[in-house]
Amino acid sequence: MSRKVTKAVFPVAGMGTRFLPATKSIPKEIMTLVDQPLIQYAIDEARAAGIEEFIFVTSRGKSALEDYFDGAPVLEAALESKGKTKLLEALRKSDMDSGAIAYVRQREALGLGHAVWCARRLIGDEPFAVLLPDDVITGDVPCLEQMVDAYEQTGGCMVAAMEVPYEKTSSYGVLDIGEDHSSIVSVKAMVEKPPADQAPSNLAVIGRYILSPNVLENLNSMKIGAGGEIQLTDAIDAEISNGDGVFGYRFRGQRFDCSSKAGYLQATVAFGLARDDLRDEFATFLDDFIRMRDAAE
Ligand code: UTP
Q1: Where are the alpha helices (DSSP H) in the chain?
Q2: What CATH number was assigned to the domain covering residues 7-259?
Q3: Which atom of ligand 1 is nearest to the CA of 11?
Q4: Which atom in ligand 1 lies closest to the alpha carbon of residue 230?
Q5: What would the pLDDT profile of 154-213 be if each residue is shown by its tens digit?
Q6: Residue 132: is it exposed, middle or buried by C-beta count within 10 angstroms (0-12/13-18/19+)?
Q7: pLDDT tens digits for 123-164?
Q8: pTM over 0.90
Q9: Is the peptide bond before 21 cis (omega within 30 degrees of 0)?
Q10: DSSP code per residue over 250-280
């Protein structure tokens, strides 16, 4: 099977309950880090990795997400007539070619595995990437691009992996590691959300995957896993013995968990401080704020 990856699935059908009440009317993926929605960071990363077809698995209440990728001719004309070229450039990042994005619906939030399965007809019989937009990853080389390069050597299935404190393993899919070649590890088993004392390691799966189409067949069984959901981890785990192997990839970069409030705030600070146009003012504010808080204690 070819190891070229040109399709990516973005499962965005979750309810985002950790951000209620905001997510009652705003899809989580539209929330911004500085001035770009989370979904834009994921799209940019996928494009950098050579992805050409973008498949969104959406649900009720996500229309703001679909609108975000439409052309905006009136807005563009207004910016053009005022010579606002920088803003125009920023706006055009969100333009997607006609036909490059497809939307499929997940009728009920039955889990991440089920969401990916909903895209099966659009994926067909080729390897594909999955990106969870609430994991935002910074680094010199975008995470998925690193993985696409590594995947050319390994084939099979590949998951992004990162060491987490043992007390946090119960929030992640965790890898039982076979051979460890530093950035690439072979996987003996995957366990979804194990408590610390049952975790086979502290190497956790982060929201970037390159998967063989066999995973979609494994999902056909609709096996209910941890938390009563159809888990992607279980369908990948089944490939360890059936397929061409499963590999963890220790990516280079920093990951922000924007599905949690604390992670989202940390990302906001990091992205604010990374911006040339904001750094000085923002850093001064943070320094003063912390000094005043310490003085008040
Ligand atoms: P999460 O576990 O973070 O769930 O999903 P969530 O619904 O987004 O947020 P909380 O936990 O209620 O706050 C991880 C990813 O899987 C997608 C989500 O949209 C998110 O990108 N997902 C999850 C689906 O698309 N469908 C599902 O049934 C479950």
Answers
A1: 38-48, 63-68, 73-81, 85-92, 112-117, 120-123, 143-154, 214-219, 232-242, 261-273, 279-296
A2: 3.90.550.10
A3: 25
A4: 28
A5: 999 999 999 999 999 999 999 999 999 989 999 999 998 999 999 999 999 999 999 999
A6: buried
A7: 999 999 999 999 999 999 999 999 999 999 999 999 999 999
A8: yes
A9: yes
A10: E-SSEEEETTSHHHHHHHHHHHHHT-TTTHH
CA of 62 to the centre of ligand 1 (A): 13
Q: What residue type is assigned to position 258 of the chain?
A: C
Identify the bridge partners of residue 204 per DSSP, sorted by sequence position: 162, 174
Ligand 1 center from residue 7 Cα (angstroms) = 20
Which residue is associated with the tokens 């659009």? 122
Closest CA to 121 of 133, 135, 104: 104
Tell me if 206 CB under 6 Å of ligand 1: no
Name the residue ranges covered by the structural domains of the chain: 7-259
- 91 by Cβ neighbours in 10 Å (0-12 / 13-18 / 19+) ranks as middle
CA of 97 from ligand 1 middle (Å) equals: 27
Look up residue 156 and give its two tokens: 């099979």
Q: Which of 29, 38, 134, 208 to mutate to test the pocket of ligand 1 (most atoms within 8 A of CB)?
A: 134
DSSP helix/strand/coil, 50? coil
